[in-house]
Specification:
Layout (H helix, E strand, L loop, with lengths): L3 E2 L9 E5 L2 E2 L1 E2 L10 E5 L5 H6 L3 E6 L1 H4 L7 E5 L2 H12 L11 E2 L4 E2 L3 E2 L4 E3 L4 E2 L4 E2 L3 E3 L4 E2 L4 E2 L5 E5 L2 E5 L7 E3 L10 E2 L6
Parallel strand pairs: 4-5, 5-6, 6-7, 8-11, 9-12, 10-13, 11-14, 12-15, 13-16, 14-19, 16-20
Antiparallel strand pairs: 1-3, 2-7, 17-18
């Protein structure tokens, strides 16, 4: 995802932009791999984690936790930081009408399955996809990867979050990108799904 400013977001009436900041990915405050992260904190137990995680560039927290944050990062306060976080997540999720790119399969790879999506799949060099494998859109497979028969990779995925009497559907249509790294070998009946904003 391209760099976004907090000030460019549409916030609900219960949220307040206190300090502008930028982010290029969303994740939980314990995330160590993603950089320039927008996260949330709704419990004091995670204060040290947030204050010591240099990858967090912007945070959503309760007004009472705001004063306890030691880092000078982008800040949104909300009575329900988790709900605000997932509302932002949903607003950034591409619609199912987003432009689809034709799948790219390297000429040196061998595909023996009829169930590889014609859109939004990339398969690198010297990879092998066995029979009866299902590969959904949004999957990137590296070089020298062997996918055994019966595997299901990727998918639309979804999740629901309950907030009192309110239920929020967390959108992930076209946000599931499964990355199988070079020289990966799958065993039979793996179902692989890794969420990442691209």
């Amino acid at each position: 995802m391209k760099n976004k400013l907090l000030s460019s977001l549409s916030l609900d009436s219960g949220s307040l932009l206190c300090r502008d900041g930028s982010f290029s990915s969303l994740g939980h405050c314990v995330e160590k791999k993603e950089k320039n992260l927008l996260s949330f904190i709704d419990e004091e137990v995670y204060l040290d984690t947030v204050n010591n995680n240099k990858n967090i560039s912007s945070i959503i927290c309760t007004p009472s936790l705001e004063k306890k944050l030691t880092s000078n990062i982008g800040l949104i306060t909300s009575e329900n930081p988790r709900l605000t976080f997932f509302q932002i997540h949903n607003s950034l999720a591409p619609s199912s009408n987003s432009a689809k790119k034709p799948s790219i399969i390297h000429d040196s790879s061998s595909i023996n399955s009829k169930y590889v999506s014609k859109f939004d799949v990339e398969i690198g060099m010297n990879s092998f996809v066995d029979q009866n494998v299902v590969i959904h859109p949004g999957v990137r497979i590296g070089n020298d990867v062997h996918i055994s028969s019966g595997c299901v990779i990727g998918g639309d995925g979804f999740e629901y979050k309950r907030y009192g009497n309110y239920i929020l559907q967390v959108m992930s249509k076209n946000l599931i990108f499964t990355h199988l790294q070079n020289s990966f070998h799958s065993s039979i009946f793996h179902h692989l799904k890794i969420s990442k904003l691209n």
